[in-house]
Design goal:
The chain is an alpha/beta fold. The chain has a single domain, classed as Rossmann fold (3-Layer(aba) Sandwich). The protein has 14 helices and six strands. Helix 3 links the parallel strand 1 and strand 2. Helix 3 packs parallel to helix 12 and helix 4 packs parallel to helix 9. It is globular and about 85 Å long. This is DUF1574 domain-containing protein. It comes from Paenibacillus curdlanolyticus YK9.
């Protein structure tokens, strides 16, 4: 065989092999990039799936009329509920530990790739406004600026790891096991509440909370930019503060961060009205164990997420407790901060050891 012919045959075989590997990985789609809600053979996705990657591609694919931005807590706002209340298709574009800068970049991306976009729901969480809060390692700004990000293409279709992960996904789905796979969120971007958290999740959450805090002016500027972008593009913007559990509120108090917590709210209402669902009330003070209000210490449930939507959209408000949700403005911020301070006295567990409290709850 001549050298030229050998070269051609080698190139053809190599190309065929790449096409076969790429096609196999595309069909199995172990990370949920190309067709997230698959069939029985690939419904469960790899534990190595990256929400930062997946949601960029799924949001572009679905082109929803409404998006939900924020941290993993925002993934408890249910897109089907948004659709039923507003008639708008919705997608949960929130990602774990998202800072306001990350929210801003995903909003810019959504505006660029989604001509149907009309409404933005933005979840606001005190912790991620801390100056020392790190940018998530999986955040890749280049991906959001590129029409086709070749690194994602090669890593998800042509890499050895993708091939191995496809095999693992097939095994787990065939045997109905979760050795290599889990579903942390659904095809609409919202959290999958069938996920079982590891036993020490709440303790680890508590230990990871800040003991020092410096409010980031850059993060506040990012929220201002989000507001300006929505106004400039004719988008409705709903900003809300998550209903964190009373145990988390107590950490702010016991770590001497309460003044910063209040100042954070004061600064937010200078940007736009903010729906505030935080506080000491029956929902946040409910026991964590066997609770329908919280998935774990850090995350409220989709049932509570529906109440948030009812209140913000002024729909089915008869289902919402009267105490749950207040629209904060510069005119009422101080009176509501005073009420929140006063309501702490309603919680019988205040001032107690929080790790011991988790065991009890």
């Amino acid at each position: 065989m001549s050298y030229t012919r050998w070269t051609i045959v080698t190139l053809l075989l190599s190309t065929l092999l790449l096409v076969l590997v790429g096609s196999f990985n595309y069909v199995v789609d172990p990370y949920g990039i190309y067709h997230f809600s698959g069939s029985d053979y690939n419904y469960q996705k790899s534990k190595d799936s990256d929400p930062y990657l997946i949601k960029a591609y799924q949001g572009k694919k679905y082109k929803p009329e409404a998006i939900v931005l924020g941290t993993s807590r925002s993934m408890r706002l249910n897109p089907p509920t948004i659709k039923s209340l507003t008639g708008e298709t919705a997608y949960g574009l929130g990602v774990p530990a998202a800072t306001p800068y990350i929210d801003l970049k995903y909003l810019e991306y959504a505006i660029r790739v989604d001509p149907n976009l009309k409404t933005v729901f933005l979840g606001l969480d005190f912790e991620v406004f801390n100056e020392s809060f790190p940018t998530h390692a999986n955040f890749n700004e280049k991906r959001l600026k590129s029409f086709i990000y070749l690194q994602d293409f090669f890593s998800s279709l042509l890499s050895e790891k993708a091939l191995k992960d496809s095999r693992k996904v097939l095994i787990d789905n065939y045997y109905k096991t979760t050795t290599y796979t889990e579903n942390r969120f659904l095809g609409d971007g919202s959290f999958d509440e069938t996920l079982v958290f590891p036993p020490n999740t709440d303790q680890e959450t508590l230990q990871a909370l800040p003991t020092t805090y410096q409010l980031s002016l850059d993060s506040l500027d990012d929220v201002k930019q989000i507001k300006r972008l929505c106004d400039a593009n004719g988008l409705r913007l709903y900003m809300y503060i998550s209903p964190v559990h009373a145990i988390l509120l107590e950490t702010f108090w016991q770590n001497s961060l309460w003044n910063q917590f209040e100042e954070w709210k004061r600064q937010l209402v200078q940007i736009a009205p903010v729906w505030d669902f935080s506080g000491y009330h029956d929902i946040s003070m409910s026991p964590l164990k066997h609770s329908s209000h919280y998935n774990d210490l850090s995350h409220f449930s989709k049932q509570v997420g529906d109440l948030i939507l009812y209140r913000m959209l002024n729909k089915e408000t008869d289902k919402v407790p009267a105490y749950f949700g207040i629209s904060l403005t510069p005119d009422n911020i101080e009176s509501n901060l005073a009420i929140l301070r006063s309501n702490r006295s309603l919680w019988p567990e205040r001032g107690k050891n929080l790790l011991q409290l988790l065991t009890k709850n």
